[in-house]
C-alpha cells in the first residue's frame, strides 16, 4: 500500500534494444551486441542511483520496463536493474511492475528470473494471430511461438498478462481480425490493448504507404476506411461480450485488471523516465533524456551526479496553468470514466465550467459528451471521434 506520507510516482525504464526493427516502428530502438547491452545496463543502474537520491519524497506505485524489446537482454541484466530500482527508490509493496516482451525473444528461464526479480505483469506484443500478417508487419515471431510464451508465463505464475493487438494492418480483413480476437480471448488474458496502425514518417511503412501512396504488387494493401470502422466497432462489441471492459480508448480489461501504470499517465500521476530517450513529468515540468547513446554512456553519474543529470535531461519545460488544464482534459477524457469536476477544482482552484463551459455545453448538445453527477465523459460516439473532441479543449 502506498505511504500516506509520500507522494505517488511512477517509473518508466527504457530498454532501447530489439532483435529487428518492425516495419511500422518509430520508437527509439535498435539492434546492438551483448557488450553494449551490458554497458547500457551498468550505466542505467548508475542513473537509477543518481535519480533515486533526488526522489526521497516519492513512493513508486508502478514500474514499466519498455522498449524496444526488453526481453532481448539477458534476464540477469533485468534482475540487476530491478534490484537497483528497489534499493534506490521506495517501491510500494503492492506496486504493479510490468515488462514488455516479444514472443520471439522469450525463453522459459527468462520468465522465471523475471518473477523472482519481482515483476508481476507481462505485456506481450502479439499484434495478430495470422502469421502472414505478422510477416507483413516485420515481426520476428509466429503465433505458435506466442502460444508457447503465453503458456510458459502461466506456468511460472504470472497473475497479470496483457496482449497487444494491432488493427488496420496490411492485408487485414474484418474476418481475419475477428479470428485474432477469438483466438486471443480463448486464452483469457487479463488485459488486451487494441491499437490501430499509424503510419509514421521515417519508417519502411511510410515509404510504402505514407501520404496516401497506393500499395504496389510487392506489398498488401491497407484496409479501406469502411473495413477500419467495422474492425473498430467489432473490437468494442466482441471484447465486451467476452467480459473485457473498455476503460480507455484503446484498452480493455477484466474487472480489477486495468493497467495502473497507464491510468497514472492519464490521471497526471508524476512519472520519471530512466534510460535512453525516456520522458518524465515531475514537479510540474516535462523533460526527456538524451537519445544519443554515446553521450548517455559517457555521463559520470558516480562522480558528478547533479551535473550529469542536468546534461541528461536538457532543458526543462515548465507547464503553464492553462497547459495543465488542457492536459487534464486531453488525458482524463481518454478514460471511459472521464474527468471529475471535484478533481479539477482541487487541482486548479476554479470550476470546470468557468474554463470550459461553452465547449462542454456544445459537445453535450451534439451527443459527444455526457454528464453523470460530478463526472464528465465521452459518449461512444465521442470516443469514435476522440481526436476531434479532445482538440476542442485547446485554450486560446
Automatic annotation (TrEMBL):
Keywords: 4Fe-4S, Chaperone, Cytoplasm, Heme, Iron, Iron-sulfur, Metal-binding, S-adenosyl-L-methionine. One of its GO terms (biological process) is porphyrin-containing compound biosynthetic process. GO terms for cellular component: cytoplasm. Signal peptide: none annotated. It comes from the Bacteria. PANTHER family: COPROPORPHYRINIGEN III OXIDASE, RADICAL S-ADENOSYL METHIONINE DOMAIN-CONTAINING PROTEIN 1, MITOCHONDRIAL. Belongs to the anaerobic coproporphyrinogen-III oxidase family. HemW subfamily. Probably acts as a heme chaperone, transferring heme to an unknown acceptor. Binds one molecule of heme per monomer, possibly covalently. Binds 1 [4Fe-4S] cluster. The cluster is coordinated with 3 cysteines and an exchangeable S-adenosyl-L-methionine. This is Heme chaperone HemW. It comes from Enterocloster aldenensis. The gene is hemW.
Amino acid at each position: 500500500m502506498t505511504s500516506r506520507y509520500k507522494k505517488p510516482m511512477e517509473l518508466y525504464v527504457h530498454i532501447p534494444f530489439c532483435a529487428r526493427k518492425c516495419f511500422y516502428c518509430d520508437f527509439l530502438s535498435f539492434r546492438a551486441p551483448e557488450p553494449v547491452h551490458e554497458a547500457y545496463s551498468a550505466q542505467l543502474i548508475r542513473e537509477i542511483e543518481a535519480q533515486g537520491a533526488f526522489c526521497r519524497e516519492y513512493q513508486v506505485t508502478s514500474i514499466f520496463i519498455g522498449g524496444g524489446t526488453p526481453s532481448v537482454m539477458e534476464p540477469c541484466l533485468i534482475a540487476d536493474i530491478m534490484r537497483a530500482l528497489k534499493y534506490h527508490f521506495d517501491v510500494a509493496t503492492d506496486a504493479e511492475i510490468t515488462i514488455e516482451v516479444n514472443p520471439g525473444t522469450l525463453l522459459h528461464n527468462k520468465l522465471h528470473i523475471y518473477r523472482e526479480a519481482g515483476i508481476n505483469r507481462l505485456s506481450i506484443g502479439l499484434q495478430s494471430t495470422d502469421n502472414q500478417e505478422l510477416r507483413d508487419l516485420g515481426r520476428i515471431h509466429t503465433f505458435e511461438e506466442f502460444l508457447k510464451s503465453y503458456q510458459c508465463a502461466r506456468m511460472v505464475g504470472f497473475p497479470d498478462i496483457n496482449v497487444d493487438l494491432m488493427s488496420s494492418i496490411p492485408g487485414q480483413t474484418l474476418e481475419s481480425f475477428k479470428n485474432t480476437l477469438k483466438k486471443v480471448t480463448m486464452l483469457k488474458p487479463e488485459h488486451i490493448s487494441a491499437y490501430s496502425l499509424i503510419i509514421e514518417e521515417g519508417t519502411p511503412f511510410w515509404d510504402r504507404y505514407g501520404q496516401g501512396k497506393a500499395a504496389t504488387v510487392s506489398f498488401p494493401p491497407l484496409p479501406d476506411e469502411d473495413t477500419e470502422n467495422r474492425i473498430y466497432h467489432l473490437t468494442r462489441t466482441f471484447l465486451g461480450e467476452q467480459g473485457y471492459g473498455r476503460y480507455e480508448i484503446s484498452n480493455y480489461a477484466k474487472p480489477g485488471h486495468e493497467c495502473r501504470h497507464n491510468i497514472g499517465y492519464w490521471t497526471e500521476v508524476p512519472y520519471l523516465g530512466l534510460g535512453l530517450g525516456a520522458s518524465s513529468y515531475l514537479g510540474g515540468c516535462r523533460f526527456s533524456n538524451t537519445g544519443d547513446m554515446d553521450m548517455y554512456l559517457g555521463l559520470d553519474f558516480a562522480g558528478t551526479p547533479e551535473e550529469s543529470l542536468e546534461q541528461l535531461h536538457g532543458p526543462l519545460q515548465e507547464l503553464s496553468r492553462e497547459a495543465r488544464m488542457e492536459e487534464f482534459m486531453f488525458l482524463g477524457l481518454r478514460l471511459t470514466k472521464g474527468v471529475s469536476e471535484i478533481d479539477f477544482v482541487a487541482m486548479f482552484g476554479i470550476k470546470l465550467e468557468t474554463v470550459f463551459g461553452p465547449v462542454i455545453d456544445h459537445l453535450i448538445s451534439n451527443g459527444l459528451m455526457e454528464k453523470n453527477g460530478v463526472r464528465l465523459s465521452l459518449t461512444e460516439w465521442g470516443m469514435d471521434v476522440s481526436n476531434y473532441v479532445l482538440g476542442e479543449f485547446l485554450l486560446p
